[in-house]
Amino acid sequence: xxxxxxxxxxxxxxxxxxxxxxxxxxxxxxxxxxxxxxxxxxxxxxxxxxxxxxxxxxxxxxxxxxxxxxxxxxxxxxxxxxxxxxxxxxxxxxxxxxxxxxxxxxxxxxxxxxxxxxxxxxxxxxxxxxxxxxxxxxxxxxxxxxxxxxxxxxxxxxxxxxxxxxxxxxxxxxxxxxxxxxxxxxxxxxxxxxxxxxxxxxxxxxxxxxxxxxxxxxxxxxxxxxxxxxxxxxxxxxxxxxxxxxxxxxxxxxxxxxxxxxxxxxxxxxxxxxxxxxxxxxxxxxxxxxxxxxxxxxxxxxxxxxxxxxxxxxxxxxxxxxxxxxxxxxxxxxxxxxxxxxxxxxxxxxxxxxxxxxxxxxxxxxxxxx
Amino acid sequence: xxxxxxxxxxxxxxxxxxxxxxxxxxxxxxxxxxxxxxxxxxxxxxxxxxxxxxxxxxxxxxxxxxxxxxxxxxxxxxxxxxxxxxxxxxxxxxxxxxxxxxxxxxxxxxxxxxxxxxxxxxxxxxxxxxxxxxxxxxxxxxxxxxxxxxxxxxxxxxxxxxxxxxxxxxxxxxxxxxxxxxxxxxxxxxxxxxxxxxxxxxxxxxxxxxxxxxxxxxxxxxxxxxxxxxxxxxxxxxxxxxxxxxxxxxxxxxxxxxxxxxxxxxxxxxxxxxxxxxxxxxxxxxxxxxxxxxxxxxxxxxxxxxxxxxxxxxxxxxxxxxxxxxxxxxxxxxxxxxxxxxxxxxxxxxxxxxxxxxxxxxxxxxxxxxxxxxxxxxxxxxxxxxxxxxxxxx
Lengths: 370, 394
Ligand SMILES: Cc1cc2nc3c(=O)[nH]c(=O)nc-3n(C[C@H](O)[C@H](O)[C@H](O)COP(=O)(O)OP(=O)(O)OC[C@H]3O[C@@H](n4cnc5c(N)ncnc54)[C@H](O)[C@@H]3O)c2cc1C
Known about the structure:
Chain B: Residues 233-389 form the Acyl-CoA dehydrogenase/oxidase C-terminal domain. The structure holds 2 protein chains of 2 kinds. Chain A is α+β, with helices and mostly antiparallel strands. In chain A, 50% of the residues lie in helices and 16% in strands. Chain A is globular, with a radius of gyration of 21 Å. Classes of the chains: A alpha+beta, B alpha+beta. The interface between A and B is large, with 46 and 44 residues. Bound molecules: flavin-adenine dinucleotide. Flavin-adenine dinucleotide sits between chains B (128-131, 136-137, 161-163, 213, 372, 375-376, 379, 381-382, 385) and A (261, 263-264, 268, 271, 273-274, 330-331, 333-334, 337).
């Protein structure tokens, strides 16, 4: 075993830290939130330029063929600088679904790699709770040799900045769940966008008699469930790595703050009760990174083992993220409650990550059932 | 020991409940139910105070000669509990519970005549100007200076976290009038007209999109010397009196009781009421809240206890603030992925998409706001320091 980064991973991380450190400052973040798409277009073009959007796409399909570990290394850097651009949605989840699709999707993958295309998964339906294995009420019916899509999706993360929605749906007369690609601008598609707590965007999306051609079915119903599960696990790994990066930033931010902030004539970091809080945060963050590595090691395992590992890691990382962000806020006193200090941004980002693609409760249940 | 509830309270509770039900406007109730505590409440606060003023019920806890009603501590408990349970707005707290008692206890006759009726009638909002950028927990070292110049003070300095300062007509400030003595001895309690020249207020954007907290900059602000309350140099004593005055409110017992019930309602709405994991979380919180209520009752009934009163007050604050966290965390978790949405834009608040159940908007904003429970009014760490010192002499 070797836990040290490869030369290539070191380079990837260095360039990511350099680029993101310069651009993704707190001021940038606060200003960029007003962008309705939730995407900094210039930065997204740079992500493509730097090869990040091609990272996980197989070489045979025109990508860089990077490993899940490479993707996680980059994700930690994104999380550390609170980048909410839809890397996980597009370059991990979306790219994986296309890479596993029926037929040749090299054009779509090239568009993702080049930064021209962003995609968002539209899975949740009203009244659901992380129902990734449940049949979809959203339906595709056949009219002659055309397909027609009807249904209602909720909380499609990153949808407002996406040109294509990857929609899970039942196909008339077939068992299973298909994944169909739908142009966000197609007639009959109505997206109602809104901001999430971390400044990213999501949408509820209604599909009303949306005409599709047969090519739109990128994953057939027989394989949909399995591919969706893989894609979600990968996206979850990216989010867990982002959370680890964010937590590590919290440690930096808090250790600097308690050294600088003075009360009662001394830095508050001199109070032992705060030293112990910092120590607890350190312990939790260390465990979180270990949990992430455990999941990475199982990322290519057979589905049951992979899912169990991802869920165990999710419990560890997400619980750690709550401890770190809550205590980090507490250490800042009133300043932690403001939008003007970085810690509250980590708090909100970690809160969103905890709830995306399965919260702690969801993963506890998945482990219990495994 | 007699642990039976006082029979006479049953009829009193009925009367209060009926009055609130009659008086509380439906739109105000709906606003408070969803967004109480996280959006500007000044309008509702003043409106509700004025409505209650018609019954003479705005300052029941004050001495009778200043408009109080002579209710027993248990009656006052029931009165506040019923208001909170009904989602009535909180009546202007800084006036009725903070500066009011200081004025009627230590103020001049002119100050009493000028300010007490306005507080009773809900004429305007008060701001509490204690904390400074460099002095939060260590309040005694505050630096805002007031220098006597003939018949006025010239005030210079900066305050922060001054709730609702931007909309307040008056503020009560702790200022340093004597820099030569021990820090606690050089502080005075000054009432300042917030419209005075030299005052600039900036609203601070917060974690939940709310911006009720402010920074207040004081630049050569002239304040008539008659606005000093009591003795110069006694401000620290008055501030302690004010903070000690209501030892049980820091438990947020009514909030905690109501919000546990709300969590149960949300569990039902989310189809999780029979889920053992959720049931266990709720049961634990209910156990803690009921014990906290009894802790509050012990204090209210004036129990003669072996430990220092201030240490016991910190027990209420520590437990209450932790429950404020835990209960709103549970509410957030019950929403699942729906908890990620920021209900920020006014339009969202009024008209969320029909797909969104009405128990969702406002809950996460409130949960974010509740993180402050372990920060304001003495942080969790400071409370524990107090317990260690006063209960054990450590
Ligand atoms: C929502 C809200 C409303 C408020 N409203 C008002 C208001 O209307 N008027 C007003 O004057 N003020 C108000 N405050 C200010 C509040 O009283 C202060 O935030 C509080 O006193 C803490 O001070 P601080 O923020 O400077 O934190 P600090 O004192 O800087 O604390 C930072 C960290 O250090 C820790 N710490 C400090 N001293 C010690 C110690 N001795 N031992 C161990 N740990 C320690 C704290 O626990 C905290 O974790 C409000 C605050 C909030 C959050």
